[in-house]
Request: fold
Amino acid sequence: MNAPTRPIFFDALRRNKSTAIAATVALGIVLAALPFLIGSHLGNSWLRILDFALLYIMLALGLNIVVGFAGLLDLGYIAFYAVGAYLYALLASPHFGLHLPVWLIIPAGAALSGIFGVLLGAPTLRLRGDYLAIVTLGFGEIVRIFLNNLNAPINITNGPQGISGIDPIRLGGVTLAKPIDFLGITVPSLHAYYYLFLALALLIVFITIRLENSRIGRAWVAIREDEIAAKACGIDTRNIKLLAFAMGASFGGVAGGLFAGFQAFVSPESFSLMESVMVLCMVVLGGMGNIPGVILGGVLLTLLPEIFRHGAGPVQQAIFGKVLLDPEALRMLLFGLALIVVMLYRPAGLWPSTTRRREFRGDAA
Amino acid sequence: MSIRPLLEARAIAKYFGGVKALHDVSLTIAEGEIYGLIGPNGAGKTTFFNVLTGLYRPDGGELIFAGDKLQASAPHKAARRGIARTFQNIRLFGNMSAMENVMVGRHVRTRAGVLGAVLHNRKTVAEEAAIRRRAEELLHYVDIADRADDLAKHLSYGDQRRLEIARALATDPKLLALDEPAAGMNGAETGELRLLIEGIRKDGVTVLLIEHDVKLVMGLCDHVAVLDYGQKICEDVPAVVQKDPRVIEAYLGGELA
Ligand SMILES: Nc1ncnc2c1ncn2[C@@H]1O[C@H](COP(=O)(O)OP(=O)(O)OP(=O)(O)O)[C@@H](O)[C@H]1O
Ligand SMILES: [Mg+2]
Reply:
């Protein structure tokens, strides 16, 4: 019996071209209209959350290459986000008086993060599982501590105060920080950032899909499945692992640069271990190794905590007449609960690849 | 029938603490033959494979393959040079399909990098199609084409052994090293395996075979070497090896112990 390796849904799309085109157009319209819908119904704070969801999707897709494809548990991934963000902050802010253009800084951030990825990868090549997790965790913390302390003797990072007044992202002389007139439509700043982030997230999705279905992607998964057999098949596991670290890190670097331009402020606080854990949760909860699952994980884990935060106060007010539990504490409690429930009932993630789904059901397809 | 030697092992040694897993093992495998490596449990057969394929660094000796020295402890380079293997305890990529397992085997003979993969330039697309074609061919060759889309770990035991052989063949080896391919197979399956190995040899691949099934080894191999406690005690054509008193002693001793 031949079981499909692709979800039925995508198979149907592939077979029926016109359905595929219709679905793509519909998705395009929804994605294009989304910021206007959210902006007018829910307000700017939710628009910001939407923009952040896109950044987290980029991060989750980057970490997915390392953890999901190559099977290397990385608990310090947020360091690459930090590298991208600080590079932008240093090269485009009053701090050093430099104001380099975005099209230069973002690729440079991707490259520098990629190099950091190799720096992390090289000494950890022989490590797996728990040991790798501990070393990468240390790496993430070291980067954050450096950012915190590199303000003396020479002030490079401005220490715990962080760097503020960062240039907003400008594209072709147009700043995204102010409303833009586009063909007679006024596009507010948060919308403009949304479109930029969406474009880059789609680019990263595209790159990831292409890599997954390539010789390189298969080599990553082979290493995850059995490193010794992969070596015996002629895979230079050292280089291929370093490539996974570099690729994953470079996505993080891009997201970091965008984050710095968007926030106009960076400080070491944004790059704590908790953030690494959060991105890892997105990957695992969504469906490790499966691109749609990872995207879903990114969206849900950005939105859910905010929904809990915004909802917890009013709901308690309505039921008990007063706020019994601090919404902030409740948020983490519910979040942890949600994770446990998902892992209990859907151990392969919310949207696992068909392969993984079969793996966890254990049926002989 | 000493044609060109494909592999020459010279005084290979491998020690694990006090255990002499291999000690002064020299053997010569001619191009195009099926060469058997037998011996009681723990004799060092698998260890020899691990040294040959670069998974272990030998503590002494050297390997000459196709006229050039093999670099120690570099498995992917051994594969590139043309040495492929299967494992005694099957090591497939369990959560990849049978097809993908074989496609991974093509890794070492293909070149596409990140840029090619992302841009899908004409060369990469052609290469990817060729990988797929070759993998399909090999699945047919080992007769499991109907399981192409199944996860490797869901295949039957015999099919997994076949898939491992297909994956190894995908690397275009000159020497195929099989570690107990008939283990756990019934008589009919062993018969099919024998045909498969003969076919592989006919297609120009030299075969190095570790096997406990004496009938299979004696019927299939041109030459046989016997290891015992890490030492080679005999190397000759099967008919001679079978009658060698040291070999009989080693096997009987092993059985009585
Ligand atoms: N990685 C290792 N560490 C320590 N000792 C090892 C290791 N690998 C093998 N040995 C020892 O080396 C000796 C040879 O083992 P090997 O696996 O090569 O035997 P074998 O001939 O393949 O036996 P079998 O027929 O049971 O597969 C044994 O005594 C084994 O315990
Ligand atoms: Mg063995």
